[in-house]
Design goal:
Distance between the termini of chain A: 23 Å
Strand order of the largest sheet of chain B: 1-2-3-5-4
CATH superfamily of chain A: STAS domain
Number of strands of chain A: 5
Largest sheet of chain A: 5 strands, mixed
CATH class of chain B: Alpha Beta
Distance between the termini of chain B: 12 Å
Number of helices of chain B: 4
Largest sheet of chain B: 5 strands, antiparallel
Strand content of chain B: 25-35%
CATH architecture of chain A: 2-Layer Sandwich
Oligomer: heterodimer
CATH topology of chain A: Transcription Regulator spoIIAA
CATH superfamily of chain B: Histidine kinase-like ATPase, C-terminal domain
Helix content of chain A: 40-55%
Number of helices of chain A: 4
Strand order of the largest sheet of chain A: 1-2-3-4-5
CATH class of chain A: Alpha Beta
Shape of chain A: globular
Largest interface: A-B, 21 and 22 residues
Order of helices and strands of chain B: EHHEEHHEE
Strand content of chain A: 25-35%
Chain lengths: ~110, ~140
């Protein structure tokens, strides 16, 4: 995972397989970056994620709660058809915005 | 027709083995001419079941997880067993968004994902004895040449 800060947006570039093992390693780093960096929005980059299970949904929901607490929001981009099947059934689209590309995700208001 | 095969793997409840388990099952099932989507569904369901065994089944205990996979013609049957705490209320555990461990940031979607991505799921559990989840999926095609 790589973290990039662009203005008030924290871009979280996920890589590989987003399961419980991976999720438990990355969430503290993301939350730490939010706390120190005046972040108003987290944008998850899923374009290098080859696999995800419901642990990924838990990771998104956890970051949504965090951003709600500081008055911010969460978005995602680079979601493949495979990942979209899981994301759609989870209902997580009600709380985060999914964008086609990085420009829209970092600019969007959702 | 008439093709059948089976396998079994056993490993300790370490989260690093979640990836091993789903890839091992996928490699075994790939001897059937399955679609990429079917294989992905199976990997996701196995990952959910194994993660449940690690996070909930054993919680702070150490133990082993057994994954068995049978293929018979076009039907894949996978069982994931642990010898952990067991589930007190299976109906409650199956409810979407229910989690017994909110502090662990579980989405509560594990069983719902298994039910959605597979064709059938059976859970048997006894407190202090352990839990077994059996999942079945009918795949599109038979054995590869």
């Amino acid at each position: 995972m790589r973290l990039e800060k662009k203005g008030e947006v924290l871009i979280v570039r996920l890589e590989g397989e987003l399961d419980h093992h991976y999720a438990s390693k990355i969430k503290d780093a993301i939350d730490g970056a939010v706390m120190v960096g005046d972040v108003r929005k987290i944008a998850f980059d899923f374009s290098r994620v080859g696999f995800m299970d419901s642990s990924g949904i838990g990771t998104i929901m956890g970051r949504y709660k965090l951003m709600q607490a500081v008055g911010g929001s969460v978005s995602a981009f680079g979601v493949s058809k495979r990942l979209d099947k899981l994301i759609s059934m989870s209902g997580v689209k009600k709380i985060i915005s999914i964008y086609k590309n990085e420009q829209d995700a970092t600019r969007g208001v959702g | 027709m008439g093709h059948s095969n089976d396998m079994m793997i056993r490993f300790p409840n370490k989260s690093a083995n979640e990836g091993f388990a789903r890839v091992a099952v996928a490699a075994f099932v790939a001897q059937l001419d399955v679609t990429v989507e079917e294989l992905s569904d199976i990997k996701t369901a196995v990952s959910e079941a194994v993660t449940n065994a690690i996070v909930h089944g054993y919680e702070n205990l150490k133990g082993y997880i057994t994954v068995k996979c049978k293929i018979c013609d076009c039907v894949v049957e996978i069982s994931v067993s642990d010898s952990g705490h067991g589930i007190a209320d299976i109906e409650k555990a199956r409810q979407p968004l229910y989690t017994s461990r909110p502090e662990h940031e579980r989405s509560g979607m594990g069983f719902t994902v298994m039910e959605t991505f597979m064709d059938g799921i059976e859970i048997t559990s006894a407190l202090g004895v352990g839990t077994t989840v059996v999942m079945k999926k009918k795949v599109s095609a038979g054995q590869q040449d």
